[in-house]
Amino acid sequence: MPKFSVRGVWQRWRESYPTVGSKPEDAITVFTGVPTMYVRLLQGYDGMDPDSQKDSATAAHQLRLM
Which domain holds residue 63? Predict the structure, then answer.
């Protein structure tokens, strides 16, 4: 099993939704994780520059989180 990568997850989400309303064929639509993963993702988000935060928020808004 691949190691969990906060940076990698955010990057993949941003690639799935590069602009509002866009959705490539292989876009991620659901993310399932344990609470620790969500905490680490939020910490990673807090450490991003404002432009990356904006792009990441746009992408994350498109996901169903479980």
Answer: 31-66
pTM for the structure as a whole: 0.83
**Domain tally, the chain:** 1
Cα distances from 17 to residues 3, 34, 35, 48, 56, in angstroms, run: 23, 23, 24, 18, 9
Residue count of the chain, please give it: 66
Question: Residues 6 or more apart from 34 whose CB is under 8 A from it?
Answer: none
Q: Which residues pair with 30 in a beta bridge?
A: 64
Beta strands 64-65 and 30-31: pairing type?
parallel
| Average pLDDT of the chain, as a whole number | 90
Over residues 15-33, mean pLDDT? 81
Instruction: Establish if 37 belongs to a structural domain.
Output: yes
